[in-house]
Amino acid sequence: MAAIMTGDTSTQGAELAALIATLADSKRFLGERYAEWCTAAPSLESAVAAAAMAQDEIGHARSFYPLLQDVAGASAETEPETRSTFAVIDFLRAPFQGWTDFVAANFLFDTALSVLLESARDSSLKGLSQRARRILEEEPLHWLHAEGWVRRLATLGPGVRAALIGSLRRIDPEARAWFNISTPELTAAGILTDGADSLRQAYLARVSPVLEAAGLPGL
Amino acid sequence: MWEVFARRKFEEPLAHVGTVAADDPNLARVYARTIFNEFTWVEMILFPRAAKVTALRT
Description:
heterodimer, A: globular, B: 19% helix
């Protein structure tokens, strides 16, 4: 097994830094997008849930930035407050256009993040495995929220259903492509246990049964 | 509507802590846990208000 050491400036070291940066920025932007719905969700209950999930995601992001400093070195670009270039999917770069965007991101991208973190549970990078295990303890609640809302929106009439399908179809290609962050070099080094194709299969195995049960088209 | 009960210690009885509105049991679970999170509960249960059985009414 090839080793990737922290502070490594090799290609493998750069890929590790890219992985941690992507995890940190993705969690940060997902949390910020969730937070924008703390006062705009369809009910008081879902507003509280949005706030709780935003708090979780931003906390997860906050835990990844010190790890980014460990692997990439301290600089303005590894400090969350001064970082200016972010590794995040386009869907999360702008505010959600509606609640169906929120639910689609919660259902697909939050799940994609969890699938990747499950592949980091036994990472050779101890700081990553520790964070992955801790974060995965909180994610089941996010999944319950996501699949519950997918089921609910699928039954709220053709307009809502069409909007949900549109949101799902806009984020899904980005979520799937996002798994390319798991490179052969990272799996060879034991940073992640699964490659991009395996992660995509695990993601589809998680979300497809919910879509099918809700009578929604597959991805 | 769901009635939510919780307890902080196993030796304590479950106490009514409030209600949540949801038409999906999983969403009700999420709402109960995120809304009534003021304590570290050891158990939280909920049941639909429609399932109540009235034993006495004066």
